[in-house]
Amino acid sequence: MSSIPVFLQGEKIFLDSRMSGNVFVKAGFAGKIRENGLLAELNGETWNFSLWSFESTVSSADLKEFAQDKDETVFLEGSCFYGFVLSEYLESLEKEESIKACSLVCNALDALDESKSALSLVGAGGIIVSKDFSKVLFLPKNLIEISLSSLGEENFSDLYGSYLNPVFSGKTAVRFLQAAIVYKAICGKVPFAEKSASAREIDIRDLNYCPLRHAVFGVDEKILLFTENAFAGKYCSFPKEEFSALELKEPSSSDLKKFNEESHKFLLRQEKKIRAKRWLSIKSTAIKICIAVFIFAIAVAVSLYGTFCEKRTTKGLTSLQTVEMYYSAVNLLDVDSARASSAKSLGGRVDRLANIFVTGKTSSMYNAGNDLVPPSVWLVKNQLSHNIYGISNFTVDGNPCRTFFKGQRRKEKPPAILEESGQKVFPGEKKEYQVEFFIFDSLGEDSLCVSLQKEKVSLKFKKDRWIIFDIQTEIESNFFKFSELKAEYSAAMEKCGGDVFACASVLRQEYDFIPSDQEIKDAEKYVEEQSLVFVKPANK
Question: What DSSP state is assigned to residue 409?
Answer without folding.
Answer: B
